[in-house]
Specification:
This protein has 15 helices and 9 strands. By secondary structure, it is of the alpha+beta class.
Amino acid sequence: MKVKELQYPVVNPFLFYGKIVKWQFRPSLTSMKNSYAYRFTVFFENGEKKEYQRSGFKTKKAAEAAKEETIVALDSKTFVPFNIETKDFFEFWLYYYMIDERHIAYNTYYTYRNIIYNYIFKALDINKTKKKITSLTEKDFKKLEQYIDSKGKSNSLKRTALSVMSRALQYAQSRQCISINPAENFQKYHKIQKRRSNKKTKKREVVILTLEQCTLLIDTCKANFSELYIPLLFAMTAGLRISEVAGLRYKDVNFEDKTITVHGQIGSTLDRKGKEEQMATQQYIAPKTLASERTVYIPQFLCTEILNQHKKYKRLSEIVPDFYDLDYISCQPNGKPITKRRIRSCYNKLLLLCDLPKMHFHDLRHTYATLLDDAGISEKLISNMLGHVRQSFTQKTYVDKSAIPCDLTSTLCNIAPKLLTTTK
């Protein structure tokens, strides 16, 4: 399969100058024909400088007052040195900031790109009007919302689009491309409330399994879908995401402490690394968020199953030609990490065999959380294990991580025997 290379657009070179680091004014005003002017030089992060002249003032007093206003703007970082086109800035933000500096994931890039080119640019008619970013106002957020509504798109996409526009403009303000972020006066567009309409949209219901259903699922899986067995256990007894399950390696397991540590996940890189080996979508990448990098406590029986899986891994590495020794626990016979598509395919067949309702693999994380909640584990602790702890939440409610091993180990040891009937 031929993969299209990522191409960076050409944008206004002034965007690469960076922030203003210092400035210097000429000590005296410049006298011109029937008017006065003042001149100053601005120096940027990349070493470049630009000279400015403000003229047309009828009196010295007016020129001095304008000069003071410019000094205040420079000091408060509200001075805008360049008038950048909106198209140039959004492309710079996506490619040269979000990709090069923030290292966003492959899927995030395509989501943002779709929103910028197919919704923001079209809603504001950017390509025709050559609209400057300094001319954006609160009304442009309303235009974006109305455009998305006219296309019959979901509130979820609308929230994402408005959030992308707001974040980009927040960065524009930090780079002094705009003096005021128009999103600040329209916070309500970031939190779109559900509105009544004739067209009701159904929200997917999360399915939570009972303890008996969990037991049925695990027993049936072990008997009929051996390649899904370990991924299923990681989801149900450790609350891992499907991409984290696929990316877990043997070196991430601490058998003495009975823990697994999530350092990353399986996904795609923007440079499509691995396409020659047909592994472009099976690269080991950074976790979803900072909070996603976490240590999770697991029951003893899962440690035993991982050791049994490792024996199979060693045998395969000895007998399979050109084996990929990548250390993945959930791997294909050739050593490559199991694909998310394969996990979902086997999982859907397993649900049919168990006569269980159709549900997403991700719902197993909710089942895991519910089991812990029913066992009396606090919401703070559950959020920590799921990798959902936000910085603000952590600061507000202090989590004593030293208490986690005792609480979770004992809880999982109590739950584990109830989940298993055939696994000893």
